[in-house]
Amino acid sequence: KKIFKIKAEFDTVMDYNRKNTKQYYEFVRKLVDDESLPAVDISGLQALVEYGRRLSRHRRKLSLRFTALADMTREAAFCAGQRKARRVMRKDVYCAIVNRRNRINLIEDKIQEMFDNDVLMIDTSGRKVGQINGLSVYNVGEYQFGRPTRITVNTSLGKAGVINIERDADLSGPLHNKGIAILTGYLRDMFAQDKPMVMSTSISFEQSYSGVDGDSASSTEIYGILSSLTGIPIKQGIAVTGSVNQKGEIQPIGGVNEKIEGFFDVCKSRRLTGRQGGIIPHQNEQDLLLRPDVIEAVKAGKFHVYPVKTISQGIEILTDVPGGRKLRGNKFTRDSVLWRANEKLRDMASAIDQFGRDNAAGKKRRSTDGNDKDERPARKK
To answer: Looking at CB atoms within 10 Å, which of 96, 249, 331, 373 has the fewest?
Structure first.
């Protein structure tokens, strides 16, 4: 404190605007001149700026990781040299990005191979009750990639509430446990204001053996619970990411590009049908900087990205049944998913209450008839 009296902080991103884009161009030009690299044309410069935006993980920001930008410029120049071109173009930058990815994505390839061979089970077509595809991100040091994970939900009468199988197996991290607690609060607020919620529902991340953390699957888990409760099947061609608060509002998550691209790769390996896609929080629209092949598939209508704000919007996309909304007096839009879930929970509450009454009446009859005595043989003294 005696020597360094002025505190300074350095950001890793800057605003994406005309001024800063020009500075990006000037940095690339200086690098080209200093190292005698091939000139970069306007399409190549634009591709490098897009790369910087992707590094920043925000469409309206540019990364200040100039070392990474310089390395990408050099690799793009190498790609241009391989095709004996005098200028670096957009396709050379894409070539460099693909080459870089291919050098460090061995684990990604192995996992994709397991999906292709049905070792890791996932459905990308059809509909199923209580089964949904969540999206997760794998982090292997300097490289991240996304892949889908099957989540299953089973529901029955009971008072156990939401059972987190991952937690029971000591595979659930604190953030995932918090997400389960939050979605439980949402269910209570939505459905348990005029009746007890007598439901036992178990949630499992299938074929997950190394632990689960983060709350980005909490909305996915709610969709699975609603499907299991109502018996309405969920489209398996749509994967979901997004956390949720206790009011049913979808909240932003990280790694949205990797998650969407990971599910796209699995769908593409099995054939794109035009009915596949991913659901994301609407706040993450500003973070979308997808690969060119994914963008082309979206433009052609072969793949879709659905931004949503609420649980109701998301479940409607997944089921083609109106999600509905809560009305006054703890009522719901008729024939909607929320209405059907509420009616099912009411029936479950009545069933468990009737079971208790019948059980109590049975005990009373046995007591009156003298049949409640212990019929076990007397122990010898």
So the answer is: 373
Six-digit token string for 364? 């009373």
pLDDT digits (tens, 9 = 90+) for 199-232: 999 999 999 888 888 889 999 999 999 999 999 9
Query: Around 107, how many Cα atoms within 13 Å sit in the side-chain half-sphere?
Result: 12
Count other C-beta atoms under 10 Å from residue 188's C-beta. Answer: 13
216, 218, 219, 243: which is the annotated catalytic residue? Answer: 216
Each residue's pLDDT tens digit, 242-257: 999 999 999 999 999 9
**Among the ranges given (3-12, 32-41, 266-275), the one the predictor scored with the smallest mean pLDDT:** 3-12
Question: Strand order in 161-164's β-sheet?
Answer: 161-164, 199-205, 143-157, 131-140, 238-240, 277-281, 304-308
259 a catalytic residue: yes
Tell me the average pLDDT across 15-44: 95
User: pTM of the entire structure?
Assistant: 0.88
Sign of CA dihedral 332, 334, 337, 339: positive
How large is the C-alpha radius of gyration of the chain? 27
In the predicted model, is pLDDT for residue 380 greater than 80? no
Question: Given pLDDT bands bounded at 50, 70 and 90, which one contains residue 367?
Answer: confident
The amino acid that residue 233 corresponds to is P
Catalytic residue among 61, 172, 219, 259: 259
Q: What is the pLDDT of residue 326?
A: 92
> Catalytic: 61?
no
Looking at residue 73, its amino acid is T
The residue with greater pLDDT, 239 or 368, is: 239
**pLDDT value at 14 more than 90:** yes
